[in-house]
């Protein structure tokens, strides 16, 4: 079991959830703009770092 790959997958999923929440909030105008911007930026950071971990981790058997 590769911990880096698993952690990268979790980060990617959290980033996707954050981006979807921020996008939904912008469309619905339900919460404050500052909160949505912060959630969107954190979602982008999680998504990019998760993809980077999954891509750069080598498979070792």
Q: Any overview of this molecule?
A:
By secondary structure, this protein is mostly helical. The protein has one domain. It has helices at residues 3-28, 33-56. The longest helix has 26 residues, at 3-28. The model has no long low-confidence stretch (mean pLDDT 89).
Helix/strand layout:
Elements: H1 3-28, H2 33-56
Helix pairs in contact: 1-2
Transmembrane segments: 7-24, 36-54
Keywords: Membrane, Transmembrane, Transmembrane helix
* Count of structural domains: 1
Instruction: State the distance separating the first and last CA atoms.
Output: 9 Å
- Main sheet characteristics: none
Shape: rod-shaped
What is the helix content?
Answer: over 70%
Structure class: mainly alpha
Q: How confident is the prediction overall: mean pLDDT?
A: 89
- Please tell me how large the radius of gyration is: 14 Å
- Topology, number of strands: 0
Condensed summary:
With 61 residues, the chain is an all-alpha fold. It is built from two helices and no strands. Keywords: Membrane, Transmembrane, Transmembrane helix.
Task: Describe this protein with a few key phrases.
single chain, 61 residues, mainly alpha, transmembrane, transmembrane helix, membrane
């Amino acid at each position: 079991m590769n911990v880096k790959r698993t952690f990268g997958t979790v980060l990617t999923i959290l980033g996707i959830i954050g981006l979807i929440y921020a996008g939904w909030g912008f469309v619905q105008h339900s919460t404050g703009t500052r909160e949505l911007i912060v959630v969107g930026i954190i979602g982008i950071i999680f998504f990019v770092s998760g993809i980077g971990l999954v891509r750069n981790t080598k498979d070792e058997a």
